[in-house]
Specification:
By secondary structure, this protein is of the alpha+beta class. It has helices at 4-22, 52-70, 92-102, 111-115; strands at 40-44, 121-127, 130-134, 139-142, 147-152, 155-164, 167-174, 179-186, 192-201, 204-215. A ten-stranded antiparallel β-sheet has the order 4-3-2-1-10-9-8-7-6-5. Helix 2 crosses helix 3.
């Protein structure tokens, strides 16, 4: 056996372990590419964007069906038995609701849904040392290239944001939940802001959401509405 072979295998294993440990969005730079500026006021194009409510509803229905299958059958009863009585703790409906109610998989508690800009209009301010995103309800501020620990519904998460090519990326990896990655970039003509949001891991279903925004002129005034 080639004596160098074990060392090569060990080096390969360490490299793979390091890559898997990084995962997610990978290396993110602190400096924006030359000429790339996401700053502006942007209005959601609903027709071109995914509807989070439909995604919520699909996940909720799938969870309800799955937990209904997991609920143990109630004791046999007559016409007045507990099987179809949602107020009876022994009924199928009550047991299913109890399982869902105690589950940490509630889609409204998922970190991914908490990060989606909810307003029809968002404002981005881009500076060398700060990326600021405001959707009419929530202010979020990021330091390009920086890493920090932030609060999420599941507890805490490691957050890393910065530039990857022409995208501004926000990577939030929950220590006891999913990893959510947001990517913001401009269309080729610079008149549209594109947001790609994906989440996976932490016993959560894989989710991908696309949002498309049109650049607003400074003279436009649109009352904010939320999803």
């Amino acid at each position: 056996m080639n004596p160098a072979r074990p060392r090569q295998l060990l080096a390969c294993a360490l490299l793979c372990a390091g890559l898997s440990g990084c995962g997610g969005a990978g290396s993110l730079a602190p400096d924006a590419p030359h000429g790339v500026n996401l700053a502006g006021t942007w209005k959601l194009d609903r027709a071109a964007s995914d509807d989070p409510e439909k995604i919520y509803d699909k996940i909720r229905r799938e969870r309800e069906a799955r937990y209904a299958d997991q609920a143990p059958p109630p004791p046999r009863g007559g016409a007045g038995g507990p099987g179809a009585d949602p107020n009876n703790p022994l009924s199928v409906d009550a047991q299913t609701a109890a399982i869902i109610g105690t589950s940490h998989l509630d889609p409204f508690d998922m970190g991914v849904f908490g990060t989606i800009p909810r307003g029809d209009v968002i404002t981005i301010k881009q500076q060398p040392d700060e990326m600021y995103i405001f959707d009419g309800t929530t202010d979020r501020s990021f330091t390009p290239g920086a890493k920090s620990v932030v609060s999420v519904p599941e507890g805490v998460a490691d957050q890393h944001s910065g530039w990857k090519s022409h995208d501004y990326v926000i990577d939030v990896r929950g220590q006891a939940g999913p990893e959510t990655i947001e990517r913001y970039h401009l269309s080729d003509d610079g008149q549209h802001l594109l947001a790609d949001i994906q989440s996976s891991g932490g016993n959560m279903p894989r989710i991908k959401i696309k949002r498309v925004y049109d650049r607003m002129s400074t003279g436009q005034n649109v009352a904010p509405t939320n999803d």
